[in-house]
Amino acid sequence: MRVRIRFEKTGIMRYVGHLDLMRFFQKAVKRSGLPIRYSEGFNPHQIMSFASPLGVGLTSEGEYMDIDIKEEVASAKGIASLNENMVEGLAITSFKYLPDNAEKCMSAVTAASYIVTYKDSKDDACYIDNICDLKEKFFDEAAAINIVKKTKKGERELDLKPLIYRFNIEVKDGVPVYDLLLLPEFDELTLDIHRVDMFTGEAYSFVSLGDIGDEH
Predict the structure, then answer these.
(1) What is the pLDDT of residues 130-162, one digit of tens each?
(2) Cα angle vertex 98, ends 94, 101, to 5°?
(3) What per-residue string of b and e applies to 165-188 under the rule 16 or more CB within 10 Å gives b?
(4) Boundaries of every domain in the chain
(5) Alpha-helix residue ranges (DSSP H) falling in the chain
């Protein structure tokens, strides 16, 4: 049986990289007593996979991990037993059984939603009074948003607009808050970046990874 676990990564845990996070969860699952399935062979390991890794310095309320277990555990018990072995900044929020034909979270992700704010409002080069007008000209009215992307093979021009599925701005307490739905990867600069959720499917018909499966 395959289970999809949703968890939050906040606070000090934002500075823990993906490999260390994987090692932590391997130990936490073992301590929790969940009947996780192991691979066969000379070096058995827990059958566990993660969705798109979160960049160091980013926070999230929509991270996902799939595990295989040998016998059914009540969803509420699964959440409780894992949370007893979490540390500050990590919290399990969902424990759902997946249908047999569900795609693994690692390969299913096609988009992710983010809330982006400046760490220091002074870093926002735009004036609050006209920021919505600037966004309208830059994004809404633009036929394309072309950039030059450098790769190992050289440079190529890339249109970002088809990769941005949603771009909204709301001014809260004089600070602009950017609401984005786009490809999962996002690098930290001078921004506070919070991943809200991850999705599967195609543009404009996305389904949250957390909406797949059922609680038992």
Answers:
(1) 777 888 888 888 888 888 877 778 888 888 888
(2) 155
(3) beeebeeeeeebebebbbebebee
(4) 2-108, 111-211
(5) 18-32, 75-83, 105-108, 131-135
pLDDT value of residue 108: 92
Please state which of the four CATH numbers 3.30.70.580, 3.40.50.1370, 3.30.2290.10, 1.10.150.20 is assigned to the domain occupying 2-108. Answer: 3.30.70.580
The pLDDT tens digits for 9-26 are: 999 999 999 999 999 999
Angle at the Cα of 153 from the Cα atoms of 164 and 202, rounded to 5 degrees:
25
* C-alpha span between 27 and 14 (Å, rounded): 19
Is 3:76 a contact under the CB 8 Å cutoff? no
Q: What is the pTM of this model?
A: 0.85
